[in-house]
UniProtKB/TrEMBL annotation:
The protein's name: 2-C-methyl-D-erythritol 4-phosphate cytidylyltransferase
NCBIfam families: ispD
EC number(s) from the headed UniProt entry: 2.7.7.60
CDD domains membership: CDP-ME_synthetase
Catalytic activity: 2-C-methyl-D-erythritol 4-phosphate + CTP + H(+) = 4-CDP-2-C-methyl-D-erythritol + diphosphate
Gene name tied to this protein: ispD
Keywords: Isoprene biosynthesis, Nucleotidyltransferase, Transferase
Pfam families listed in its UniProt record: IspD
One MF annotation (Gene Ontology) recorded for this entry: 2-C-methyl-D-erythritol 4-phosphate cytidylyltransferase activity
Length: 230
């Protein structure tokens, strides 16, 4: 089967408190989006990458990746899941139901290409797919409305979900459509796939695959890339 990729990059990055959406902030001389796409382009299995962009996006045409033959773009939607679904549908003329599609956030530029390859190989025979994740290091508290601690969760069974998330193409489209129709909150692909009754696998990733969410994350990302010689 074939491997395709989807990159949601249509967010406005409200938590960054900057004019520029986070995918276009500068990270060691390139945009965050360029860095994320570079990691995917370095995985030769991936045949095409569909990038979901905001309809108001004026930056994309100036990126070097805009002229890359393995990359196409499509207009994203109002929530991340809408952007992912729009990009999946734009792959419809390429992808067969049993093909693999890898969804990777534009905001995770520190993922390692070698880790992506290992994940594709490890999950290759799985009927559903799986996600990159790391065990939670912190003890996690559940709070009440007044920020009082209501419960301490069992850390030994908690993992933090990252992207990439890899699923069979047909299964993922069906699960996302069903979940969005039902009004379920879908913050990652796995949550829709779980909700549809499947059991995705966890693939143990690295804590350095951080998501750029608040301004200080850019400094951490710069250190991580420098340590990896980029
Ligand atoms: O805001 P958050 O960190 O969850 O965004 C994750 C990714 O989803 C980002 O790469 C962002 O650009 C993308 N996104 C999107 N369409 C939206 C909202 C977020 O493609 N409507």
């Amino acid at each position: 089967s074939h491997f395709w990729a989807v990159v949601p990059a249509a967010g406005i990055g409200s938590r960054m408190q900057t004019e520029t959406p986070k995918q276009y902030l500068n990270l060691a001389g390139k945009t965050v989006l360029s860095r994320s796409l570079g990691k995917l382009l370095a995985v030769p299995f991936i045949e095409r990458i569909m990038v979901a962009l905001s309809p108001n996006d004026a930056v994309w045409p100036s990126l070097p990746e805009a002229s890359e033959s393995r990359i196409s773009t499509v207009a994203g939607g109002s929530e991340r899941a809408d952007s992912v679904l729009a990009a999946l549908k734009a792959l419809d003329s390429y992808a067969a139901p049993d093909d693999w599609v890898l969804v990777h956030d534009a905001a995770r530029p520190c993922v390692q290409s070698a880790a992506i390859s290992r994940m594709l190989i490890t999950l290759a025979d799985h009927p559903v797919g799986g996600i990159m994740a790391t065990p939670i290091a912190d003890t996690v508290k559940q709070v009440d409305a007044e920020q009082g601690i209501a419960a301490t969760l069992d850390r030994s069974r908690l993992w933090a979900a990252q992207t990439p998330q890899l699923f069979r193409y047909g299964l993922l489209v069906a699960a996302l459509e069903k979940a969005l129709d039902a009004g379920v909150t879908v913050t990652d692909e796995a949550s829709a796939v779980e909700w549809a009754g499947h059991t995705p696998k966890l693939f143990s990733g690295s804590r350095t695959n951080l998501k750029i969410t608040v301004p200080e994350d850019l400094h951490l990302a710069e250190l991580i890339l420098a340590a990896e010689g980029e």
